Every structure is written in C-alpha cells, then in structure tokens.
C-alpha cells in the first residue's frame, strides 16, 4: 500500500484570518498558567477549584490547555488584575506560574514567578535599601523592596520581590563580604512556597523522584554490581569442566550481571538442568546436551512437564 507521502504531498492546513477563526478577542481578558509539578497537580481539578478558592466562581471560566497549562477567562479587568497582583500562588501545595495572555508569547513565557523573599541576618552596618536590592538580585530580577531605612522596622527581616526562574533551585542562604573583608551569612525565606524537593530545592518534583538522587542510586547500584561481579570472578566457576553443564552453557552466560549484581540465571533453573542431564531416563547424554541449548525458559517448562 502507498503511504500518505507517496499518494500526495502533506501540505499544511491554512487557517483563515477571518474573525470567526480567531479567539484573540476572547483571550484579551485571560491569564495563562503552568503547573510546575504536573505529577502532583491535576489540571482537571485546578480549573474547577481555583475560581472557588479566589471567591470568583461565577465570574471566571477555566480551560485545560494541556497536562501542564491552563487558561482562565475573566469578565472584568479588575478581577484579572486582582488575581495577578496576588503574586505567586500554589495549587495542591505546589507552585504554579501565571501571566496575562499575550498574542505572541516570548521564549521565557511562564518561566518566572513573582516571589516575596524575606532576607534575614542582614549585618547591622548594611541596613540600606541599596544593600537589600543587591542581595535580592542574587535570587532574580528585583521588582520591589518593602523597606525604608528612614522608617520604623518592626520585623527582624527585610522583604524583596523578585522574578524567580522556576528551573533553578531555591537558595537558602548567601555569603556576603563586607567592605572591611569580614564575611557574613544572610538567610532567605520564601513567602507562600509550600512544597519543594528537599534534596535539590527545586519546585518541579518531590524528593523521592529527584533526578540527582535517582542518578546517585543508579550509580551506586552499578558500582555495587561491578564489585559483586569482580568478587565472583575470584570464586570457583559456576560451570565446572567436570560438571554436566560444561559445553551446554558458558561462564559468561551464568555469572553475575554487573548492572544488577545478581546471577544472570536463577540457580534453581541451573539445578533443574543439572538433574535432567544426569538423570537415567533412557535418553542419550549428547541428545540431552543438544536439547538443553534451547532457551532456558522453554527448557524449564519441559523439565516441569517431564516430572
């Protein structure tokens, strides 16, 4: 049969620019969002739950765009801006990114989330707005600082609003060097951040599935498998020249798998094969050896059938 490419050229379908084809008018009063941890944030639940959480269930329509993206349509500009002004928000305790719809999305669309960060342990001689601004830039683009060195300061921290790149880990602290060469450590606390990976501090997965931990476990398993394989080489061979399996299987087929650290063939299967080869059931040994070279799973079924 001829393929589609052979029958006709697969030309793109051209969508008309007529008004009835475009949803840009409807999108003008909408926000686009992306969940950061899709494994723990179901879009089907999100589009139903967030309007209720915001207290605007009758004034917002939610659409699932994919397993990661969603869209909310608003009836008024006021409601749309009010939701965005809330800053970073969570669903099912995991963060999500949300921005106002634009007709042509930039490459970094929905990559940054606005977060208010508390800066703690600021050195007493550096309580100035410019110091706070420079420290905030360590975390992302600074949008605002809630600090005035000419006003009362009732809390043991200063706050800064940054656009945080969600692909990066949350920094817990930063060493700063003072003008006299002394070094000090400032700590960061992120407002509204609930869950994160407590290994790499990223916002897009749980600790159990952290890629860094997964890779470490795989490397340890591989290393353990290689060690077991090396130790096995120093022991007596499984296939002995005087045994019935000699000539039927090679040592490479039955020794330790360096990846798993386990024998490639279950010892019980090998024992079944040995018993069959030495059993006095009237079959010639050479015939048995030839039969035994079939795949071991099939051979095991044969052995079970003859018992």
What does this structure look like?
The protein is an alpha+beta fold and 307 residues long. It has 3 domains: 20-100, RRM (RNA recognition motif) domain (Alpha-Beta Plaits), CATH 3.30.70; 112-200, 2-Layer Sandwich (Alpha-Beta Plaits); 216-306, no CATH class. Helices cover 30% and strands 21% of the residues. The protein contains 10 helices and 10 strands. It has a 5-stranded antiparallel β-sheet with strand order 2-3-1-5-4. The protein has a 5-stranded antiparallel β-sheet with strand order 7-8-6-10-9, with helices on one face. Residues 29-104 form the DUF4283 domain. InterPro entries: At4g02000-like (IPR040256), DUF4283 (IPR025558), Zn_knuckle_CX2CX4HX4C (IPR025836). This is DUF4283 domain-containing protein.
């Amino acid at each position: 049969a001829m393929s589609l490419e052979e029958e006709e050229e697969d030309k793109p379908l051209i969508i008309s620019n007529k008004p009835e084809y475009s949803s840009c008018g409807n999108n003008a009063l909408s926000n686009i969002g992306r969940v950061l941890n899709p494994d723990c944030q179901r879009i089907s639940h999100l589009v139903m739950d967030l309007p209720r959480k915001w207290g605007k269930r009758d004034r917002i329509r939610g659409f699932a765009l994919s397993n990661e993206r969603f869209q909310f349509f608003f009836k008024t500009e006021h409601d749309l801006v009010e939701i965005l002004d809330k800053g970073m928000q969570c669903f099912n305790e995991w963060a999500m990114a949300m921005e106002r719809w634009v007709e042509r999305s930039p490459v970094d669309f929905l990559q940054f989330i606005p977060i208010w960060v508390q800066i703690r342990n600021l050195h007493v001689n550096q309580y100035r707005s410019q110091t706070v601004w420079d420290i905030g830039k360590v975390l992302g683009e600074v949008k605002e600082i809630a600090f005035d060195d000419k006003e009362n300061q009732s809390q043991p921290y200063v706050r800064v609003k940054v656009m945080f790149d969600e692909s990066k880990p949350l920094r817990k602290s930063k060493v700063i060097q003072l003008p006299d060469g002394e070094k000090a450590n400032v700590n960061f606390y992120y407002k509204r951040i609930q869950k994160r990976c407590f290994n790499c501090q990223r916002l897009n997965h749980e600790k159990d599935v952290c890629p860094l931990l997964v890779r470490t476990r795989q490397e340890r398993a591989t290393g353990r498998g290689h060690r077991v394989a090396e130790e096995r080489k120093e022991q007596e061979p499984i296939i002995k020249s005087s045994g019935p399996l000699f000539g039927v299987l090679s040592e490479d087929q039955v020794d330790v798998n360096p990846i798993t650290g386990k024998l490639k063939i279950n010892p019980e299967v090998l024992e079944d094969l040995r018993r069959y080869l030495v059993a006095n059931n009237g079959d010639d040994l050479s015939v048995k050896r030839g039969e035994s070279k079939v795949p071991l799973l099939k051979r095991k079924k044969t052995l079970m059938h003859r018992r």
